[in-house]
Amino acid sequence: MERYKKYVIPYWKYFILGPIGMIIEVLGEVLLPWFLSKIQNIGIENQNITFIVAMGVCMIVTAFCMGIGGIMGAYYASKAAMSFGADLRADLFEKIQQFSFQNIDEFSTGSLVTRLTNDITQVQNLIMMFLRLCLRAPGMLIGALIMAFIMNAKLAMVILIVVPILTAAIVGIIKIAFPRFELMQKKIDRLNSGIQESLVNIRVIKSFVRSDFEENKFQKLNQDLKDTSMRAFKVVIFNMPVMMFAMNMTTIAVVWFGGNMIISGDMKLGDLMAFVNYIVQILMSLMMLAMVFLNSSRAVASLKRITEVLDKKIDLTDEDALCKQKEVEHGSIEFKNVKYRYYKNSNEWVLNDINFQIKSGQTVGIIGPTGCGKTTLVSMILRLYDVDEGEVLVDGVDVKQYSLKNLREGVGMVLQKNVLFSGDIMKNLRWGDANASDEEVFEVSKRAQAHDFVITFPDGYATELGQGGSNVSGGQKQRLCIARALLKKPKILILDDSTSAVDTATEAKIRETFYTSLKDATKIIIAQRITSVMDADQIFVMEDGKIVDQGVHAQLLERCEEYREIYDSQMRREVKE
Predict the structure, then answer these.
(1) Residues contacting 307, CB < 8 A, separation 6+
(2) Residue 69 confidence (pLDDT)
(3) How high is the pLDDT of residue 573?
(4) What is the DSSP pairing of strand 389-394 with strand 333-340?
(5) How far apart are CA 304 and CA 287, in angstroms?
(6) Predicted pLDDT of residue 572
(7) pLDDT tens digit string along 149-184?
(8) From CA 268, how far away is CA 248, in angstroms rounded?
(9) What SS3 state is found at 541?
(10) Interhelix angle for 12-38 vs 120-133, to 10°?
């Protein structure tokens, strides 16, 4: 728990003022039955109206102070809990942002969402409840016990019999509840993952008329969560009847024995009335503690899951980099005997013995069948993955020696799966350069062949994009992503099959921009269409994680069978069309 102190220290006043408010409320609750007993024993029996009024005023003042204390305690407890949760959530999100792709693969997206939301909410609720009840419940328990023994030690012995039995019952319930709540959080993970997958792919679901299938799948996940939740909450439900039964039986016992004492003259009626109130307070405080412990079992399960993320070792960092101040200046690239596999205990290499050199300013095409390792290869350049063997050099320096920020600032990458964010087009494009002027944005949009369609929208560059850019076409999305990368003014530009959704004429105009506006930048184009890479300075042909040949178009057409097969099949298709 040492690591969580930093979320408490900035708000220590709230963590102190909250319990103080609860103590004020507890003192009032302990005093009120005593005032009531005095009214009965002295005021009513002696028909002393002045005394009754005086005690009544004391009770009103006490009740008012209790109200102030309760409000203060609840307010500061809420403020402490919300502040703690907000800071913890910010750190958790920051840690996830530092994750490598491999780290992210170890947690499902739905699980990370649950940990950032539901799990932190459980911790917040526990802190809020703890601050409100940590002193209130024990204070009420101790205060009521003391007053009960002061009034009648013999009758108070009944409580000492009930308390250990209830304590044992509470411990047993918590022991059963903890693993069930832990399992429930995992089921919430699965449900969130299923919801996210369905919503992200809603267009595919509708186009394949698979709504019924997805509804059935969701129903199973939902029912599974319901059943698991019911198993967990049955324990909580069982807790209340046990406590109420104990409270009622204790009250009956106290009234029975106390009534006999009144008949025998060993006890006054006012004392019995107060005593019953104290019994209720003692048992209510036990119920509060039981509730805190039950909620803590769920919160501890959530805290364990949060800690798993915070403690996760990031396998790709720049802590040991020797050239953290260095920036990418020219854009030359070299791969030396590079090998990589997704799973470290696997014998299957995704990239195997990759060697090549790219001079700064060159345009290089990479072509090959799906799954041959093209995307993984270019991901090595900006360290989205790290090599298992060999070296990747940029400007003659191993990429591991750069700071991640400087390395990635020098590389622009348009991913195979184009991603736009909620917000207007201008904000999305300024991801490339937050300080770019409107004129600079317009210029790169023209180069990426995006400007003409953007200005046709009623709001132009102020057009709001749906989640993921859902209200623009695939080709428009690709051109906006290219414009965003161009605004970055990278020394190395990587296009991962990022013009597949645009027509050949538009693609030719975009390629022309690369040879003019980006003539000094190194350009790597991954493509399925041979026409996209025919004019490149070098073309790499990949298959099964290896570069089987490299050269210019004419050379590969003459000597590389794999390249010739791709060329012939595409040319025949174009002729037919």
Answers:
(1) 3
(2) 86
(3) 60
(4) antiparallel
(5) 26
(6) 66
(7) 777 777 777 777 777 777 777 777 777 777 787 788
(8) 22
(9) strand
(10) 40
Q: Residue type at 49?
A: I
**Residue 326: per-residue pLDDT:** 92
Q: CA angle at residue 343 from 342 to 345, to 5 degrees? A: 145
Helix (H, G, I), strand (E, B) or coil at 511: helix
Q: Which residues of the chain have pLDDT under 50?
A: 575
Reduce the DSSP state of residue 409 to 3 states and report it.
helix
Q: Which residues contact 397 (CB under 8 A, 6 or more apart)?
A: 323, 326
DSSP state, residue 457: S
Q: What string of DSSP letters covers 520-562?
A: TSEEEEE-SSGGGTTT-SEEEEEETTEEEEEE-HHHHHHH-HH
Q: Beta-strand (E) ranges in 203-326?
A: none
Strands 538-543 and 546-551: antiparallel
For residues 376 and 342, give the distance between their C-alpha atoms in angstroms, rounded to a whole number. Answer: 10
d(CA 45, CA 19): 39
Distance between CA atoms of 283 and 137, rounded to whole angstroms? 10
**Res 575: pLDDT:** 46
Beta strands in 431-534 (DSSP E): 464-465, 492-496, 522-526
- Tokens 């009144």 correspond to 262
**pLDDT at residue 1, rounded to an integer:** 60
Q: Which residue has the tokens 């750190």?
A: 91
> DSSP letters of 354-417?
EEEEE-TT-EEEEE--TTSSHHHHHHTTTTSS--SEEEEEETTEEGGGB-HHHHHHTEEEE-SS
- Contact indicator for 506, 483 with CB cutoff of 8 Å: no
Tell me which residue has tokens 């597949």.
500
Task: Name the phi and psi angles at 391, rounded to 5.
Answer: -140, 150
- Could you tell me which of 31, 20, 270 has the C-alpha nearest to residue 146? 31
